[in-house]
Design goal:
The protein is mainly beta. It has one domain: Methylamine Dehydrogenase, Chain H. Helix content is about 5%, strand content about 55%. The strands form five sheets. Strands 6-7-8-9-10-11-12 form a seven-stranded antiparallel sheet, with no helix packed on it. Strands 1-23-22-21 form a four-stranded antiparallel sheet, with no helix packed on it. Strands 2-3-4-5 form a four-stranded antiparallel sheet, with no helix packed on it. A hairpin with a 4-residue loop joins strand 22 and strand 23.
Length: about 240
């Protein structure tokens, strides 16, 4: 009996370490698998339900503090400066929302990043857990760029950050990929110029210009708002934002 009690307590402690967030983090209702915040502060998520094409899409209503469901489904999302999302569906389809309806874009992808300058980049569709090609939207088509990755985010000034299948993270400097870390899971950029990431161990990291500073809390996905305060999703699909 003593061993059973000890095991139960140990499992409870492990659960808290993985899923709970410290006092600086405020939990918001709902569950999500991906999140993005536009330069205008619009917050969008991909839910955790099963739909054709991925999961349901929601926009945060700051007035009611509730998620409003928007028609459609997707697996990945990134929001432009006007607060409208671009999404990728499970089968690779790329769509952008004009505020009223979805428009199908050419090509297929597995991740997408939209910068505060509205530059748009994608990781091309590939087999699960493998690298896809890197492309940017230019003059109505996808232009292939050197390199390959699985995750992508675009900073305020158009600088592109990617993570590859080996969990290495790079940023594009002078048309070259520069490695700036490893063991990464996700990367997110804010309209204030901040860059945040999560690690394979769910640690939350912030770029200081030369390296990464660890921040309290645990998460799998991260997306900073226009002031640089991050919104995150943890391993239990719970949603939090950090209060400064």
């Amino acid at each position: 009996m003593k061993k059973l009690i000890t095991l139960t307590i140990s499992l409870a402690v492990i659960s808290l370490l993985i899923y709970a967030q410290p006092a600086f983090w405020q939990k918001v209702p709902g569950k999500a698998t991906d999140i993005s915040v536009g330069a205008n502060g619009a917050i969008w998520v991909i839910g955790d339900d099963a739909q054709t094409g991925g999961s349901s899409i929601f926009r945060w209503d700051k007035t009611t503090s509730k998620w409003n469901k928007v028609p459609g489904s997707a697996t990945r999302i990134s929001v432009d400066s006007d607060g409208n999302p671009w999404v990728v569906q499970a089968e690779g389809g790329i769509f952008r929302f004009d505020g009223a309806k979805w428009e199908r874009m050419p090509g297929k992808a597995m991740d997408i990043g939209v910068g505060a300058d509205d530059s748009i980049w994608v990781i091309g569709a590939a087999a699960p857990a493998t690298n896809g090609g890197i492309f940017r939207w230019a003059r109505g088509t996808w232009e292939k760029i050197d390199g390959a990755a699985t995750e992508i985010a675009v900073a305020k000034d158009g600088t592109v950050w990617v993570i590859n299948m080996n969990s290495d993270i790079f940023r594009r400097v002078n048309n070259k990929w520069v490695k700036v870390g490893t063991d990464m899971l996700d990367v997110g950029t804010g309209a204030d110029g901040s860059v945040w990431a999560t690690t394979q161990g769910y640690d939350i990291m912030k770029w200081n210009g030369n390296g990464w500073n660890k921040v309290d809390g645990k998460a799998t996905r991260v997306a900073p708002d226009p002031k640089g305060s991050p919104w995150v999703i943890n391993a239990n699909f719970d949603i939090f934002f950090r209060r400064n």
